[in-house]
Each structure stands twice: as structure tokens, then as C-alpha cells.
């Protein structure tokens, strides 16, 4: 099995009970595939060689992550079938070093 990182895009209200229930249900559905359930993100900062800048939470912000195991990228994508996607989910294979 390979590991895949789901990066969630889009701001949402973490105090919304409906959204909490949707995420809890989806996590229960894919539970055996989860390596690290992750967390939502708060404020952020981008750091470059020339300095840094604060990252506001906006509709296109990266707002959380989950690490899963799947046989392929296609299988990882299938895990997202019932995900309460805010705007989008970016999926990356976590390569071995």
C-alpha cells in the first residue's frame, strides 16, 4: 500500500454541527484507510528565502489534511466519494525516502 496526502481547500465554519457530523461520518466510512486523520488548519505563514507573509483563511486556502493508505492514486481518489469537500481536495502520493 502507498500513502496519500489529502489537502483540503476552502474555508468552513468548524463550529457547524452539520459539518462536524459530515466529517465524522466520512472518517468512519474510510477508517481502515486512515494513517493520520489530520487536523483542520488555523492561521498560516508562507516562508521563502526572501522573507515571509501571513496566509489568510480564504475560499481557496489549504485548510486541513488527512494521510491515508491506498493501492493507487485512483483508489485514493475513490476514498473521497462521500467526503464533505469544501471547495476541493488535492491528493499527493507521499513518496518513500
What does this structure look like?
The protein is α+β, with helices and mostly antiparallel strands and 97 residues long. The chain has one domain (2-42, 59-94): Alpha-Beta Plaits. The protein is built from 2 helices and 6 strands. A 4-stranded antiparallel sheet has the order 2-5-1-6. Strands 3-4 form a two-stranded antiparallel ribbon. A hairpin with a 2-residue loop joins strand 3 (44-48) and strand 4 (51-55). The protein is flat and about 40 Å long. The mean pLDDT is 91.
Record the SSE blueprint.
Elements: E1 2-9, H1 17-29, E2 34-36, E3 44-48, E4 51-55, E5 62-70, H2 73-78, E6 88-94
Antiparallel strand pairs: 1-5, 1-6, 2-5, 3-4
Amino acid at each position: 500500500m502507498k500513502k496519500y496526502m489529502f489537502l483540503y481547500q476552502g474555508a468552513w465554519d468548524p463550529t457547524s454541527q452539520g459539518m462536524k457530523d459530515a466529517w465524522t461520518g466520512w472518517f468512519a466510512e474510510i477508517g481502515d484507510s486512515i494513517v493520520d486523520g489530520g487536523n483542520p488548519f488555523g492561521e498560516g505563514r508562507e516562508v521563502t528565502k526572501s522573507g515571509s507573509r501571513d496566509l489568510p483563511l480564504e475560499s481557496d486556502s489549504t485548510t486541513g489534511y488527512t494521510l491515508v493508505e491506498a493501492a493507487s492514486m485512483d483508489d485514493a481518489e475513490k476514498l473521497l466519494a462521500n467526503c464533505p469537500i469544501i471547495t476541493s481536495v488535492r491528493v499527493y502520493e507521499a513518496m518513500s525516502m
